[in-house]
Write a structure and sequence with these properties.
This protein is mainly α and 149 residues long. It has eight helices and no strands.
Length: 149
Amino acid sequence: MPAKKYQVALTAAERQTLQHLTTTGKRAAYKITRARILLKADEQQAEGGWKDQAISEALDVSVATIERVRQQFVEEGAEAVLRYKPRQSSPRRRLDGEKEAHLIALTCSEAPKGRGRWTLRLLADRMVELGHVEQISHETIRQTLKKTS
């Protein structure tokens, strides 16, 4: 088996800090788990670091998580591993305030000839025809109109 690409080598101070973190006080579960991963993966131990599979079974986390924690420790340090990383924001909105205003104005206008009212698909098609957006689905129209009541 090839040597691990990212090897964890904790200093005495880091080891002490991580042990303190895992044994005292209340902490977020992810912090405790990551600290325990680093402690078990530490190559500076007398018996050497644990294998990823053994850590995975002991801590009930995936091997991929262990690999990511190792990599982040080597690249960024222990503080970065224990810091909360916010999730990526949701996908950007298709319609900003100006485009929403055009949609609402279109919805309140007279329905096309031969139609009793606007449908979501008609509104989507008309928004594209008028050049407000390049493309848009009827579902986005529905969600926007529902949000604006």
